[in-house]
């Protein structure tokens, strides 16, 4: 089956999810990839992973953060300014899908996938965020934010024939997590350091304040470390998938913003997770980690 991938490019979560989904299905032949360019370092060499197929980066709608939270006004202004380019890129999606003529489109929570709706090709939308459409998904009570996520879920899945919502907790009749082969092949160990992965500068600064008050070693991966003076107990690295997985294999715990895929990998490797959430979905992941006894909020 020839499949075209459309992937949200913020962080490593949706990218990792797309890779693991395709790895676990040998019948899938990826014929093309569109990944949204969020202005961040990409930890994966997609041209190597998806060899001999076009990998296209396109600007899309995106979130802006301030003080380790979503900056609502900043997000609105940023996306208003970038909306004409977003519309143009919807036509680019349509063009590429028609050119490659896949049997199926797999959309990993990317609004650019709306550009495929007039091609007549079936689309499956895959993301843990779609759990918010399921009543059994436990999370803190916030009617307004919950409603906003459901609206965004509907936008990102426009034209979908099927919606898949993987979960790291047991929900009857729902999809389970997909773990990349590279992670499955790891042999968990527990050395005396904590792995840290953060995508926002303010959450990096919040973490540094915490790390300065404790006596232990941290290995930090972020693309937000430029011009920051790190204390001696923090080793700073730019994003690199192979090095990251090696440190994930050996760490005694994880600190992160609370994205679904890294939490799933940490649970699989029996690593305790502490979360600095940037938004409600990550807070909900932390809530369920706490219920499972597998993690908690950092503070």
Could you explain how this protein is built, in words?
The protein has helices at 13-23, 46-49, 72-100, 143-156, 181-184, 201-211, 241-250, 260-268, 280-292, and strands at residues 2-7, 29-37, 55-59, 65-66, 69-70, 104-108, 123-126, 162-164, 194-197, 218-221, 234-237, 253-256, 272-275, 295-297. The protein is built from nine helices and 14 strands. It has two domains: 2-164, Rossmann fold, CATH 3.40.50; 183-297, Glycogen Phosphorylase B (Rossmann fold). The mean pLDDT is 92. It has 299 residues and is α/β, with parallel strands linked by helices.
TL;DR of this structure?
The chain has helices at 13-23, 46-49, 72-100, 143-156, 181-184, 201-211, 241-250, 260-268, 280-292, and strands at residues 2-7, 29-37, 55-59, 65-66, 69-70, 104-108, 123-126, 162-164, 194-197, 218-221, 234-237, 253-256, 272-275, 295-297. It is of the alpha/beta class. The chain has two domains: 2-164, 3-Layer(aba) Sandwich (Rossmann fold); 183-297, Rossmann fold, CATH 3.40.50.
């Amino acid at each position: 089956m020839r499949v075209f991938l459309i992937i949200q490019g913020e962080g490593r979560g949706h990218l990792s999810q797309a890779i693991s989904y395709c790895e676990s299905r040998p019948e899938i032949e990826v014929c093309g990839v569109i990944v949204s360019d969020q202005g961040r370092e990409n930890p994966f060499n997609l041209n190597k992973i998806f060899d001999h197929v076009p990998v296209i980066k396109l600007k899309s709608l995106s979130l802006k953060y301030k003080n380790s939270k979503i900056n609502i006004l900043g997000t609105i202004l940023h996306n208003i300014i970038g909306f004409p380019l977003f519309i143009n890129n919807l036509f680019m999606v349509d063009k590429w899908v028609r050119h490659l003529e896949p049997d199926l489109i797999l959309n990993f929570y990317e609004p650019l996938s709306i550009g495929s709706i007039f091609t007549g090709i079936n689309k499956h939308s895959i993301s843990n965020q779609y759990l918010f459409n399921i009543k059994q998904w436990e999370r803190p009570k916030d009617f307004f934010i919950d409603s906003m996520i459901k609206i965004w879920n509907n936008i990102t899945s426009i034209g979908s024939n099927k919606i898949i919502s993987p979960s790291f907790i047991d929900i009857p009749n729902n999809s389970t997590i997909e773990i990349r082969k590279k992670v499955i092949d790891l042999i968990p160990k527990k050395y005396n350091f904590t792995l840290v992965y953060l995508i926002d500068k303010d959450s990096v600064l919040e973490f540094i304040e915490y790390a300065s008050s404790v006596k232990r070693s941290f290995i930090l991966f972020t693309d937000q470390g430029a011009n920051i003076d790190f204390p001696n107990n923090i080793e700073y690295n730019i994003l690199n998938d192979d090095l990251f997985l090696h440190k994930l294999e050996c760490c005694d715990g994880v600190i992160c913003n609370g994205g679904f895929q890294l939490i799933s990998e940490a649970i699989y490797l029996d690593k305790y997770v502490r979360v600095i959430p940037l938004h409600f979905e990550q807070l909900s992941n932390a809530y369920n980690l706490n219920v499972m006894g597998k993690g908690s909020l950092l503070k």
